[in-house]
Amino acid sequence: MSEKVIKQCVEILERIMSDDTVPRNIRRSAENVKGILLQEGLAEAVKAASAISILDEISNDPNIPLHTRTLIWNVASQLETIPVS
Description:
The chain has about 80 residues and is an all-alpha fold. The chain has one domain: Up-down Bundle (de novo design (two linked rop proteins)), CATH 1.20.1440. About 70% of the residues lie in helices and about 0% in strands. Helix 1 runs antiparallel to helix 2, helix 2 runs antiparallel to helix 3 and helix 3 runs antiparallel to helix 4.
């Protein structure tokens, strides 16, 4: 199940990265989060925690468009469903 959640999150992050209305620093952070989620050899819970930390940081950026902030909150809440085991 965790793989499915991560796959969905990566798809949303790719949508953010390809959106030209999103500031470059936000797109770069989305790319970093995607890299963390796709990293091999890390436990899903560790990936999720690292990603949520970055997403929380960028969601507080005053320059982020409202629709992008909503997508980021969506990704973060999906990642929070990954169990810590």
